[in-house]
Write a structure and sequence with these properties.
The structure holds two protein chains of two kinds. Helix content of chain A is 63%, strand content 6%. By secondary structure, chain A is an alpha+beta fold. Chain A folds into six domains: 46 residues, no CATH class; 95 residues, Phosphorylase Kinase, domain 1, CATH 3.30.200; 225 residues, Transferase(Phosphotransferase) domain 1 (Transferase(Phosphotransferase), domain 1, Orthogonal Bundle), CATH 1.10.510.10; 62 residues, Serine Threonine Protein Phosphatase 5, Tetratricopeptide repeat, CATH 1.25.40; 87 residues, Serine Threonine Protein Phosphatase 5, Tetratricopeptide repeat (Alpha Horseshoe), CATH 1.25.40; 103 residues, Serine Threonine Protein Phosphatase 5, Tetratricopeptide repeat (Alpha Horseshoe). Chain A has a six-stranded antiparallel sheet. A three-stranded antiparallel sheet of chain A has the order 7-9-10. Chain A has a two-stranded antiparallel sheet with strand order 8-11. In chain A, strand 2 and strand 3 form a beta hairpin. The radius of gyration of chain A is 35 Å and the shape is globular. Chain B contains eight helices and no strands. Chain B has one domain. The chains are: A alpha+beta, B mainly alpha. Chains A and B meet through helix 1, helix 3 and helix 4 of A and helix 2, helix 3, helix 4, helix 5 and helix 6 of B.
């Protein structure tokens, strides 16, 4: 059948023939195939096969039967695995089956729980994960964690291991059957916290804590089981970690899954704290915070990530709820806690509610920082001391809401809330600034318009039109734009709508769209509103942030500058946008080495943020950090360190131990400490920063690269040439392997490497890197940018040292031509250094006239 | 999850980078295989999972649909269908090997549903026949993958493979007839 030359012909005839009926069909084929009996046979047999039923007509409806392996349990009974004889199957799951087995050799006899990776369809990942559990268990030795006893591989190559067999009950049934009081439950739960804390200290996150994984023995000992999907936080020691860094598709138990787990985000110890919180919720109230049964996966995700949990005390019983069933359930739940519904409710209300809700907050960084802290807050409660947890404020929730939904898909509800949030803010701001009655009326009209506009966007999102049960953000927003476009007669309203939609695009990370739409808003506003109106400045700011995210820094800075200019027209005007604009422009000034100006602006932004925000707010911390670092750049290291320490205090309270902002701050702190001559503290902070970034991003991520570069810079500054060179080359290698030329770190690292060679007079090594650096800088920066100039001069100097005079002279004179007539402070120094290099160059060549010419120029500048 | 990576590779492939497909397929394979397994172990009650559902779910899970347009979406379905074929075939091969080698790994497929469903054995024969068909007509094989393994409609297949619906329809009919003949007991 292969290489049938008649295939195309057969295809044509076959398709045509199908359009004909019975006898005509054969007649047609015969006619078309005259002189080619083989082709005739072929087509006729296909036409015949067309009439029959075949395997393709049976639907692939149930791949369960096609994919699942038979359970080997029945056949395994009585089999020997290692020194153990299988007695019966206790459990089975995606991560392997567990059997009760018995060690039966002459000396002693005891029972174990034997875990065996299922045969058949086990992937490499699964094997790795299984071995990883074995590794994890081997590293844990705690009285409340089931011990690993033995392990091996069967003749068929299946890995297995034997654990301590725990003859106990899941913690929830144990509590209920023994009618433990709330206080007794809390005490037992503290043991669970202890075991989890221990695992965390061994750098193990359990990730699947639930009552059935926490057994309590007859004697009341808690035993933690099943590290099947546990994750080791330090990948160096445990090579099997790779497939586990994110849980996206790991089998997890929805009732205990944290928001970051259902979203497939990075899992940290905070996820275990969340699961502990849910377990405590359940142990105390007898119910769970969310109703998830019978919900679709996407609905479950939404509930876990967005809905506020019912308070545990409310979950016990709602007084106004007279339905018998609920009453009876409450009676039962209270009785098994040795109390009555009203008392139980009273007991949970207040501190216990607060403790549990803190443990199960949506944002990992706002939960208890460790299992130990959770346990100690429970101790506080038990001994009548005040608890650390504070109730969540509505304001905080709202603010967090926006930041949570920056990227990715937003459900219709999310967008609606975002839009309404903006609309309300805008309306409110306008009311503040415009007092005249007429304007108020206009405002009212505008608000109504906006409401209609929002409604219009969502009216069309009925199930028939939607894609399954989610409407993508893009579709909704496109609809919004179309509606806004029809409002030409009311430019003010139209501008506001574009503004709102543009900002939502920005929040969703759709910067191209955001830019386009915000530009429309700007165009209209520039025509209709006063050029000093803060709302115009807000649009500048929004556009600035969009361009900044898009990487168009030059243009973005223009917008920030414009925004600042407008804001400054209003004395004592304060807003977060104003502070944000100042902050960004100050950072810009720092890059241009205009540190005095930067300091002033950072100072102003900090004061504004202190007025507008909570003093512990992360943005305040960022301002302290930036101001501190600016001072460091000015050589005021003492003051700088003080500011950075304040920032550290804020970040440590606001973020978990492993957080990118802490890494960045520690890097900065280390630089300042080094400048102060404190190398030991500096090196320790550099390394802490690297380790945080490795945990957050992985070892090859750009952010990790930045902190590794900082350490290499430190070595370079300390004069440890080998360590520095090693550090840079390793980074370049990682980048080359990873994303080729795209890494933003590539240029700085090459530049630093070049500088290392230059500083150590290794000119030959330096030249290729200097060339690369210069070429990359000229492609992104303006011609007279200090960095372009110094890079060109460096290359010139290196070539000069290698006696390649012609090219050196060309580069240096090029530099000089650019700065010659500039009096900008950042150019003066450049001019001097370029001149010095040129003088040396001509001295080498014995061109005394040129030497004199440049020396005169140099004198001239110095005397000014 | 590899959402970002997968989405980027998908876009690269759509813009003509053939190498992207080689990186894309193993990622999709890995994730879809995991998804299939999770479904199998998730619930005790016997809920069925069709390949269509899996392919669609894979799309929701693996692709950042903020960054993708409709053409790329359908393109993903074509890839996922092909991956589905690989997954089923790999598994069938593995089970066959175990049937020969293992002592307590007997293959017992759902006997009750045998008549209405494709059996593992069928999947292998279909796969082998498709390998032969591929030498004659590669496009027909892609159509079969989309229609049979991915459960896509004629329209979806036409979008996924970027060919007209009449062409899909003709290819499907011919490939179906050809496979029927190849796989019929008499031949």
């Amino acid at each position: 059948m292969t290489n049938n030359p008649n295939w195309n012909r057969a295809k044509q005839i076959f398709s045509k023939a199908l359009e004909l009926e019975g006898g005509e069909r054969e007649e047609f084929v015969r006619q078309k195939c005259s002189g080619n009996p083989g082709l005739f046979e072929e087509i006729m047999s296909l036409l015949k096969a067309h009439q029959t039923q075949g395997p393709l007509d049976k639907p692939l409806k149930n791949i369960k039967s096609a994919i699942s392996s038979p359970q080997p349990s029945a056949q395994l009974q009585g089999k020997k695995i290692g020194p153990y004889r299988i007695l019966k199957q206790i459990a089975s799951g995606g991560m392997g089956s567990v059997f009760l087995a018995e060690r039966d050799d002459e000396q002693f006899r005891h029972q174990v729980a034997l875990k065996l990776l299922p045969g058949g369809f086990s992937s490499e990942n699964q094997t790795l994960r299984f071995l990883s559990e074995r590794q994890i268990l081997a590293s844990l030795n705690h009285r409340n964690i089931a011990k690993l006893l033995d392990g091996g591989i069967t003749e068929l190559g299946q890995p297995w291991f034997a654990m301590e067999y725990i003859d106990g009950k899941p913690i929830d049934s144990y509590c209920d059957e023994n009618k433990l009081s709330v206080a007794e439950r809390l005490e037992l739960f503290q043991d669970v916290c202890g075991a989890v804390q221990y695992a965390h200290q061994q750098l193990v996150v359990h990730r699947d804590l639930k009552p059935s994984n926490i057994l309590v023995t007859q004697s009341g000992d808690v035993k933690l089981l099943d590290f099947g999907i546990a994750k080791i936080m330090n990948p160096d020691e445990h090579p099997a970690d790779l497939p586990l860094t994110k849980t996206g598709l790991l089998p997890l138990t929805p009732a205990y899954a944290s928001p970051e787990q259902v979203r497939g985000k990075t899992i940290t110890t905070a996820s275990d704290i969340y699961q502990l919180g849910i377990i405590l919720y359940e142990l105390l109230s007898g119910s769970r915070p969310y109703e998830l049964t019978g919900q679709s996966p996407s609905e479950i995700e939404r509930i876990i990530c967005e809905e506020n949990p019912t308070r545990p005390s409310t979950a016990v019983i709602n007084k106004s709820d007279l339905r018998k069933q609920i009453q009876a359930e409450a009676q039962k739940q209270s009785a098994i806690r040795d109390t009555k519904p009203d008392q139980l409710k009273k007991l949970l209300k207040g501190d216990l509610d607060t403790i549990i809700l803190k443990a199960i907050r949506k944002e990992p960084e706002r939960r208890y920082k460790s299992a130990e802290k959770l346990a100690s807050d429970i101790s506080n409660y038990l001994s009548g001391r005040p608890v650390l947890a504070h109730p969540d404020s509505y304001f905080y929730r709202g603010r967090k809401f926006l930041s949570r939904h920056k990227a990715g898909v937003a459900s219709a509800a999310v967008i609606l809330i975002l839009l309404i949030g903006y609309a309300i803010t805008i309306t409110w701001q306008s009311q503040q600034t415009q007092a005249a009655l007429l304007q108020v009326q206009e405002e009212a009209e505008k608000s109504e318009q906006i409401t209609n506009f929002l409604m219009g966007m969502f009216q069309a999102s009925n199930p028939a039109e939607a894609l399954g049960d989610t409407v993508t953000a893009r579709i909704l927003l496109e609809r919004g734009v179309r509606q806004a476009e029809q409002l030409q007669e009311q430019p003010a309203v139209q501008a506001q709508m574009f503004d709102v939609v543009g900002r939502v695009y920005r929040e969703l990370g759709e910067y191209e769209q955001a830019y386009e739409i915000l530009s429309l808003a700007l165009q209209i506003r520039e025509q209709i509103s006063d050029e000093n109106s803060p709302s115009l400045a807000d649009t500048y700011y929004a556009l600035g942030t969009v361009l900044h995210h898009r990487g168009d820094y030059r243009e973005s800075h223009e917008f920030f500058e414009q925004a600042i200019e407008v804001y400054q027209q209003h004395s004592d005007y304060q807003s977060e946008e104003f502070a944000g604009s100042l902050f960004t422009i100050a950072e810009m000034r720092n890059i241009r080495r205009e540190h005095d100006e930067a300091e002033k602006m950072h100072q102003q932004a900090l004061e504004m943020r202190l007025d507008l925000l909570d003093p512990e707010h992360p943005d305040v911390g960022y301002s302290y950090q930036a101001l501190g670092y600016t001072l460091h750049l000015q050589g005021k290291s003492e003051e700088a360190e003080a500011y950075l320490q304040i920032a550290l205090g804020i970040f440590e309270e606001a973020y978990p131990d492993v957080h990118p902002s802490l890494a960045e701050l520690k890097t900065n702190l280390a630089r300042v400490q080094f400048a102060k001559g404190n190398s030991d503290h500096a090196e320790s902070n550099f390394r802490q920063a690297i380790s945080i970034n490795e945990k957050v991003y992985g070892s090859e991520h750009t952010q990790t690269g930045i902190s590794k570069k900082a350490l290499a810079d430190f070595h370079r500054a300390k004069g440890d040439i080998d360590a520095a060179e090693r550090g840079y080359l390793e980074l370049l290698e990682i980048m080359a392997r990873q994303n080729g030329n795209a890494s933003p770190l590539r240029r700085p690292v090459k530049q630093a490497l070049a500088r290392l060679y230059m500083e150590n007079e290794m000119y030959e090594e330096a030249v290729p890197w200097l060339r690369d650096t210069l070429q990359m800088l000229t492609s992104v920066l303006v011609e007279d940018h200090p960095r372009v100039l110094s890079a060109r001069r460096d290359l010139g100097t290196a070539l000069l040292s290698l006696r390649q005079f012609d090219e050196a002279e060309k580069l240096l004179t090029e530099n000089l031509a650019i700065v010659e007539h500039s009096d900008a402070s950042q150019h003066i120094q450049e001019k001097k250094e370029t001149l010095q290099a040129l003088i040396t160059l001509h001295e080498h060549q014995g061109q005394d006239e040129r030497v004199e010419e440049y020396a005169n120029l140099y004198e001239e500048i110095s005397s000014n | 999850m590899h959402t970002n990576e997968i989405t980027t590779l998908l876009k690269q492939h759509a813009s003509g980078d053939e190498g992207a497909l080689d990186k894309l397929m193993p990622l999709v394979y890995d994730e879809m295989q995991k998804m299939a397994r999770i479904h199998l172990f998730k619930e005790k009650k016997d809920h069925t999972l069709s390949t269509t559902a899996l392919v669609h779910e894979a799309y929701l899970k693996l692709v950042d649909f903020n960054r993708i347009d409709w053409q790329n979406r359908n393109h993903f379905f074509a890839i996922a269908s092909q991956v589905m074929r690989n997954i089923l075939v790999d598994h069938a091969v593995k089970q066959k090997a175990q049937k020969r080698g293992g002592d307590w790994q007997k293959v017992t497929l759902g006997e009750k549903n045998a008549a209405r469903e494709v059996k593992l054995h069928d999947i292998l024969s279909i796969h082998q026949a498709l390998e032969r068909l591929e030498k004659l007509d590669e496009r027909q094989v892609r159509v079969v993958e989309c229609r049979f393994f991915g459960g896509l409609t004629i329209e979806e297949t036409s979008e996924a493979l970027n060919i007209s619906t009449p062409t899909v329809s003709r290819d499907w009919k011919m490939a179906r007839a050809w496979l029927n003949r190849e796989l019929s007991p008499e031949s």
